[in-house]
C-alpha cells in the first residue's frame, strides 16, 4: 500500500500556474474538482489539458481563500466549508430533524425500541471496524437475550453497547480526562492482551499505525505529550469561544483521538464514542437513532483513506493536515445513516397500519403487545424470553412478563419452563 501522493510546491510551478489563471477552461476545471474536493491522488488520473501538478497548484491557491484553521497544541489543522458541507449540515439541522421527529411521533412505540436497536447496531459495527469477527445476527441475539459473551470479539461488542448506554447518562456533562479514561475502561475491559492498559494512557512510543504490508501510515505524538494533549482536547471540546458547527466539531474530535492515539488499543472505538457523546451533549438528539459505524464498516477503506488524505495534504510548512477530506467522508456516512433511518421509519409506518388492524381484531391488545406479536409472527420458530422484551422495548421486567403472559391468555403464545426461567413460543393451531 502506498501513502497518498502530494507534489512538492515550487516557485516555478506557482509561476506557471499563475499564467493559466485567466484561462476560463482551466478555471472551470479547478472549480469543478474543488467542489468535489479531490485529492491529488484522484486528480492525477483525470484527463486534463495541462500537467495535473499545475491544476493542483491552482486548486490549492483557490482553497486558501476559504481556509479555516484550528490551533491545537503546537499543530495547525485546516479545513474548508465547501458547498456540499453547507447543504448536508442544513439537511441535518432543519429538514432531517423535522422529518424524523414527525415520523417518530406517528409511531411512538418505535422511539425507545429504535434507540435500543441503533445502540446495538453501533456497538456491533464499531467493534467490527476494529476486527471483531462475528455475525450481526449472532451479536444482536447475544445483546437482546442478555447472554454472556463467548469470546473476546463478543466481549468487545458488549463493552461497546454498555459504553453507548453509559454515554446517554452523561450526555450533559463536560468533557474531562477522567470521563474519557472511564469510557476507555468500559470499552476495553476484558479485551486487551495486557489488562494494565485498560483505562490508561499509553506509556511508550511503540504504538504506530501500519498497513497490512508494513507501511507506516501514522506515527502518533510522543507518549510524554499525551496527558497534556488530552487536557487540551477537553478544553477544545468544551470551549464555545470560537464557533464551529457542532457536527463539524464532533468530526474533528473523532479525528483528533485517532491522531493523538492516546491509548495502546481501543482508540477508534473511543473516538467514535466521544463523537457520539459530543453530538448528544449539543442537543443533536437525532444521533441517538443513528448507527453511523455501520456505514463506516461498509466502507473501511474510505475511512482509512480519509485519515491518510488529511495528513498528507498541507497548506503551509508547519500544518498537520487538511481536515476537509475527513469531514467530507464522515458527513457522507452521517447522511447515509439518516437516509436509512427515514427509510426504516417509512416501512414501519406501513407496518403499523397492519398492527392497528391486528388491534382492531383484538381489542384486548395494546400497541406494544400488538408489536410484540407481529415480530413473533415474523419468526415463528424463535423462542422469546422476558429479558429479550425488556431489552428490545426498554420496559420493566414486570411489564415484559405481563405482556407475554397476556399474549398467552389470549391464546397467541405458549409458556414453557426452561431451566430456571419461563420461555414463550408461538402457539400452534
Automatic annotation (TrEMBL):
SUPFAM superfamilies: Fic-like, Winged helix' DNA-binding domain
UniProtKB keywords: Transcription, Transcription regulation
Pfam families in UniProt: Fic, HTH_DeoR
Gene Ontology MF: a single term: DNA-binding transcription factor activity
Domain Fido positions: 175-329
Domain of life: Archaea
PROSITE patterns: FIDO
Alphabetical list of PANTHER family matching this protein: FIDO DOMAIN-CONTAINING PROTEIN, FIDO DOMAIN-CONTAINING PROTEIN DDB_G0283145
Protein's name in the database: Filamentation induced by cAMP protein Fic
Amino acid at each position: 500500500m502506498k501513502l497518498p501522493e502530494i507534489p512538492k510546491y515550487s516557485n516555478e510551478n506557482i509561476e506557471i500556474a499563475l499564467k493559466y489563471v485567466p484561462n476560463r477552461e482551466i478555471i472551470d476545471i479547478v472549480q469543478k474538482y474543488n467542489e468535489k474536493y479531490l485529492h491529488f491522488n484522484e486528480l492525477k488520473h483525470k484527463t486534463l489539458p495541462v500537467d495535473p501538478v499545475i491544476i493542483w497548484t491552482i486548486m490549492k491557491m483557490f482553497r486558501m481563500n476559504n481556509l479555516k484553521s484550528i490551533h491545537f497544541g503546537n499543530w495547525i489543522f485546516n479545513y474548508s466549508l465547501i458547498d456540499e458541507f453547507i447543504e448536508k449540515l442544513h439537511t441535518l439541522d432543519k429538514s432531517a430533524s423535522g422529518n424524523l421527529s414527525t415520523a417518530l411521533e406517528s409511531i411512538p412505540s418505535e422511539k425507545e425500541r429504535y434507540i435500543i436497536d441503533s445502540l446495538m447496531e453501533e456497538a456491533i459495527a464499531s467493534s467490527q471496524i476494529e476486527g471483531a469477527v462475528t455475525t450481526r445476527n449472532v451479536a444482536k441475539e447475544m445483546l437482546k437475550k442478555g447472554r454472556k459473551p463467548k469470546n473476546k470479539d463478543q466481549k468487545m461488542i458488549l463493552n461497546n453497547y454498555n459504553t453507548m448506554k453509559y454515554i446517554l447518562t452523561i450526555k450533559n456533562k463536560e468533557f474531562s480526562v477522567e470521563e474519557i479514561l472511564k469510557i476507555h475502561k468500559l470499552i476495553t475491559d476484558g479485551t486487551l492482551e495486557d489488562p494494565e492498559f485498560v483505562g490508561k494512557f499509553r506509556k511508550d512510543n511503540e504504538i504506530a499505525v501500519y498497513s497490512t504490508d508494513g507501511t507506516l501510515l501514522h506515527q502518533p505524538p510522543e507518549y510524554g505529550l499525551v496527558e497534556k494533549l488530552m487536557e487540551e482536547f477537553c478544553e477544545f471540546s468544551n470551549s464555545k469561544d470560537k464557533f464551529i458547527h457542532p457536527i463539524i466539531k464532533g468530526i474533528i474530535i473523532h479525528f483528533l483521538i485517532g491522531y493523538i492515539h492516546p491509548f495502546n488499543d481501543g482508540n477508534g472505538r473511543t473516538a467514535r464514542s466521544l463523537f457520539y457523546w459530543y453530538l448528544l451533549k449539543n442537543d443533536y438528539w437525532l444521533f441517538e437513532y443513528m448507527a453511523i459505524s455501520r456505514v463506516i464498516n461498509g466502507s473501511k477503506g474510505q475511512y482509512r483513506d480519509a485519515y491518510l488524505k488529511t495528513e498528507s495534504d498541507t497548506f503551509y510548512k508547519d500544518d498537520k493536515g487538511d481536515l476537509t477530506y475527513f469531514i467530507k467522508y464522515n458527513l457522507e456516512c452521517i447522511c447515509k445513516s439518516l437516509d436509512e433511518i427515514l427509510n426504516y421509519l417509512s416501512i414501519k409506518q406501513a407496518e403499523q397500519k397492519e398492527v392497528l388492524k391486528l388491534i382492531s381484531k383484538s381489542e384486548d391488545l395494546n400497541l406494544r403487545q400488538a408489536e410484540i406479536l407481529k415480530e413473533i409472527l415474523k419468526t415463528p420458530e424463535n423462542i422469546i424470553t422476558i429479558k429479550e422484551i425488556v431489552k428490545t422495548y426498554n420496559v420493566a421486567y414486570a411489564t415484559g412478563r405481563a405482556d407475554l403472559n397476556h399474549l398467552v391468555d389470549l391464546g397467541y403464545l405458549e409458556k414453557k419452563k426452561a431451566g430456571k426461567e419461563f420461555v414463550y413460543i408461538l402457539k400452534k393451531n
